[in-house]
Structure formats: structure tokens, C-alpha cells
Amino acid sequence: MAKYRVVVVGCGGMSNKWFDYLALRTDTEVVGLVDIFIDAAKSMAERRQLEVPVFSDLEEAIEVTKPNVICDVTIPDSHRQVAQTALAAGCHILGEKPMGASLEDARAILHAANQSSSRYTVMQNRRYNQQIRAVRDGIQRGMIGKVGAIHADFFIGAHFGGFRDAMANPLILDMAIHTFDQARFISGADPVSVFCHEFNMPGSWYQGNASAVCLFEMNDGSVFTYRGSWSSEGFNTSWESDWRVIGSLGTLRWDGTNPPVCQVVDETKPHAFIHEYKKIKLPMTWEGQEGHWGCLDEMFAAIDEDRPAETDSKDNIKSVAMVFGAIESAKTGKKVRIEY
Ligand SMILES: NC(=O)c1ccc[n+]([C@@H]2O[C@H](COP(=O)([O-])OP(=O)(O)OC[C@H]3O[C@@H](n4cnc5c(N)ncnc54)[C@H](O)[C@@H]3O)[C@@H](O)[C@H]2O)c1
């Protein structure tokens, strides 16, 4: 019998990446599929040539197939119910972002995980990238000195069609979780407060506000600013965002596509009105898999080693709290203290 018996819940678009990954693990067997629309589960089983039972109810799937891992690739509104069912049955759960559709949902999931001996881990695939690992390592090693400010720009004219066009807070809720989590990952700092102004550009095809500017205070005294839009046309940034991190000795830049680079004061040259700088490339030593696959590798490794994964719910709640703090600030027009 395989070490990991997996039930996948939610057989929509994103689950394809998960099935691709699971198919390659030699210690893992998919033992059942669940979707509230049973036809979605049936056609996924057919497409993937998986001869496993399909269900519309997770509780029944667990009873019949006896899994030890549940992969939750459902919509955010379903994450709480899926997590509580899986954890109550003693299964580990690997779930898509965002952890919950509200901070209340995310807290309830964390509470259920804390009560259980199983773990709930969240997909934050944008941490798994050789370049962002080099950024984080460079900062942690003090290449630019003590960090005072992190700035991230995210501008992509994204024409999804479908539910995102109609949802409230599409940018902050559906996308900014990645950038906020990346900022915490890069800096090692956690959020204290946020001021956010959300708006819609002229000509925006989104009903909800698809643009935002946020200012976070972090617990190491630094600030993190975020400027983003899903309805700006021209000069798109990468999906990883375009970063400028400023420290006491210099600045690190990463556009999310090309290798990151630092410019620090050249102490071998005399100081001047504008100092001379030297350019330092960051060593790219990380050899893990990128994106979803890297995060899934870490999720399974954490179960193997009986430790919390990097994106365990205990950590991820802090990124989730940044999202809902920003939304509350945008609604009230006030600076919001971030609690998690
Ligand atoms: N990490 C990323 O980069 C990334 C990118 C896109 C989407 N996502 C996330 O992936 C998740 C799924 O997104 P998607 O694009 O595949 O959505 P989707 O709508 O294509 O698929 C979701 C599926 O879940 C099913 N479902 C909903 N509630 C259910 C429940 N309670 N039980 C069983 N099945 C249920 C739906 O019927 C549907 O088939 C979301 O949380 C989304 O935010 C992550």
C-alpha cells in the first residue's frame, strides 16, 4: 500500500497541476476524487485514467477510501468545510490558497488544525522559485544591511472573464495574498498594521476594485508598500511582482523574471554627494522544484519529517490577515491593526 493515500477534492482548472504532480510521486496513490458536481469528478477521473471511486461528499469519500492526505483544490468558500471534515477524520490537508474566504474562516481552520495531530498546509507557490530564494538569502545574510523598506509593484492587465470580474476586492483577495506572503518570506518580518486605498482605473473591466495601494508597518520597524492593478494596460510586471528592497548599505532589485541584483556603497571609493556603488549578483544556489511542485515537495517532506511546512497554517494566517486587514482599511478609510 502506498505511504500516502490521497483524496483530491475539487476537480476544476487548478487541480490539473496537482494531478500532474501526484502522478509522479512513487509513494503516493490517488484513491478517490470528490467534486460537488459529480460529473466534474467523473470526467477528471476519465481524463487522468484514474480507476478510483468518485464522490460528491468528502465525508463519504473518507469513509470508503481511508485516505491519510486530502488535497483541497476547491473554491475559497469551501476551504473551511473541507478542512474541518478532513482534520476531524485525522487526515493531513494540503490546500490551495487562500486558506479561507474570510479571516474568520482561516482562524477556524487554524483552530481545527491546532486541536488535531494532523497538519493544514497552504499552497504559496510563489515562494518556490530560485530567484526569490536568492533574494531572501541575500537579505538574511545582510548583503544590503538592515532592511528599512520593501516595495512591490504588480501591474498586469488580466482579462480572466468569469467570477473575478464580478467579485469584490478581486486584486487584493485573489492575487495580493501571493505578494504579501512573498514580502513576509523575503524579509522574515510580520505585519503590524496596514493602510489601504482600493480603487478602479478608468476603463476597468472589473466590477470590484481591481487596483490598490497599501502601506504596511512590519514588526522589525520596516515598511512594505504594495502598488497593484489587474486593469492597467501596458508595461506589465511579472506575476512575481517587481521588487525594490532598501537596506542600510544598499538596494536590492528583482523584477520577478531576471536574476536579482544589489547595488551597495563601494567603500573602497571616497564618499561623495552621490556615493559610488558596486553591483553584486546574488548567488543562485537553491535547487528545488519551482512553483506548485516545489511547494508540494515541501508539504510532503514536512509530513515525512513530522514538522510544520514553511507554509503551515500557523504561518499562513499572517499573510491571510494582511489581506483582510487591507480590505478592512479600504472599507473604513482608516489604518488597521493586523491581528491573527
Ligand atoms: N496558487 C495559485 O497560483 C492559484 C491559481 C489559481 C487558482 N488558485 C486557487 O485554486 C482553488 C481552485 O481554483 P480553480 O481555478 O480550480 O477553481 P474552479 O472553479 O475551476 O474549480 C473548483 C472546483 O471545486 C469544486 N467544489 C467547490 N466546492 C466544493 C466542495 N465543497 N466540495 C467538493 N468540490 C467543490 C467545484 O465544483 C469546482 O469543480 C481556489 O482556491 C483558487 O484561489 C490558486
From TrEMBL:
Residues 5-122 form the Gfo/Idh/MocA-like oxidoreductase N-terminal domain. Pfam families: GFO_IDH_MocA, GFO_IDH_MocA_C3. Residues 132-253 form the GFO/IDH/MocA-like oxidoreductase domain. InterPro entries: Gfo/Idh/MocA-like_OxRdtase_N (IPR000683), Gfo/Idh/MocA_Oxidoreductases (IPR051450), GFO_IDH_MocA-like_dom (IPR055170), NAD(P)-bd_dom_sf (IPR036291). This is Gfo/Idh/MocA family oxidoreductase. It comes from Alicyclobacillus fastidiosus.
